Amino acid sequence: MTDPKQRITELEAVERAKQGDEAAFETLYQLHKRRVYSLCLRMVSNPSQAEDLAQEAFLQLFRKIGTFRGESAFSTWLHRMTVNVVLMQLRKKALPAVSLEETLESEEEAPRKEFGADDIKLKGSVDRLQLQRAIDRLPPGYKTVFVLHDVEGFEHNEIAQLVGCSVGNSKSQLHKARLKLREYLKFMRAEKAKTG
Amino acid sequence: MNCSDVDRILPEIIDSKARDGAPINDLDFEFQAHLRNCLHCSELVSDLKLIASEARQLSDAEEPSPNVWLRIAAELRSEGLIREPELVSRPVMVRAQRGLWKAFWLAPVAVAILAAGSYFLTHRTTPPAMQKSAKSVDPEPQIQVAEQPAAPPTSTPAAQKSTTPSRNQTPHVRALQAPPDDSEQAKLSAPPATDDQRFLSEVSSRAPTMRATYENELRAVNREIQETREYLRRYPEDMDARQHLLEVYQQKAMLYQIALDRIQ
What we know:
The structure holds two protein chains of two kinds.
Chain A: H1 4-18, H2 22-44, H3 47-63, H4 74-92, H5 128-137, H6 140-151, H7 156-163, H8 167-195
Helix pairs in contact in A: 1-2, 2-3, 2-4, 3-4, 5-8, 6-8, 7-8
Chain B: H1 3-13, H2 26-37, H3 39-56, H4 67-78, H5 106-122, H6 128-137, H7 171-177, H8 182-188, H9 194-206, H10 211-234, H11 239-263
Helix pairs in contact in B: 2-3, 5-6, 5-11, 9-10, 10-11
């Protein structure tokens, strides 16, 4: 939840930005740049492209700032706009935002199901850098849902609306993404243990 | 419930939230019971929840380069969404109900103020003509007698310079370089300048609701002019301060111009 003091600062900045105040625009940018950029980076895994997308998201927002009435949180508005910008980019590249048909997944994509295997355990700790690398390796469909749900906090019904799939599909994709990440992380941990 | 069942229902149930951790339905009850008895499934669920919670920390972990804002600002300017600062939030001066207020004398005064600043910026010495002009325009004095001279500014980035007068400086300038004495303080607290007072008198007579606004604005800009001039008396070599003084004169000229534009 937004800190109340930050929310007041944000509302004041929005009103001043509507008047064309450059400092107000910059205030809004500084308040939200990390989240917007991080979201873009997680989705496209390319810093340069992520900066372009973040720039476009802020520009779209600022162009429409005159229509913002304060009924919802400004950050929510910006967040959704950013997701739309990124998904539009993915669609332009003909990359599937979400696999609409689970049965079309290749064997390579689907996480392996291992019951009773003597696995290296993740229990208790996950290296954040390894997690970032693992996310980057995810197939586009898994990555989109995972980033939107677990990183950015969208609910499944929101994800379903954003990417055009069912709630059930969103949950399924998320689960497979997490299983895949678990697999990657265990592999990375095993490799690290070997090299010492 | 067995492990296959867990695998099947896990996508639906893993993120189900109960406030106190209690099972939310019968299925969840069986699920929790299985986890208590199955090490593999409990570790799986634990790992997946750990991944989800760690992922949340990544939401604002990265920072874009400074170029992103520069590009955004440039684009906003080109689209006219960023406007140059002006007194847009101030109350608009009300046009006089009877006839037009012909205060065209504001325009040459604004130009004179700007010229005063330009001269001060570009000339180390103050020509005699400028002194006469400065007296008539005189941006320095206070609006209200009660106003006290502010402390000299410390924000200028220029290093403190020697105040030893150069050979090219006239006696007038060398005198200005001396720190203000008590007589100088008295002068600074002298009655307001002719043009500023005339300006405010016109505003009062034609648009009384605007007087306070313009009075505050003039006070602020005159204070800034005074502080910068005091500083420059001690450090006449400071080009940053000279540039700043020119900009403040420009602001004052703009103030006059805005008033002129509003009342025409």
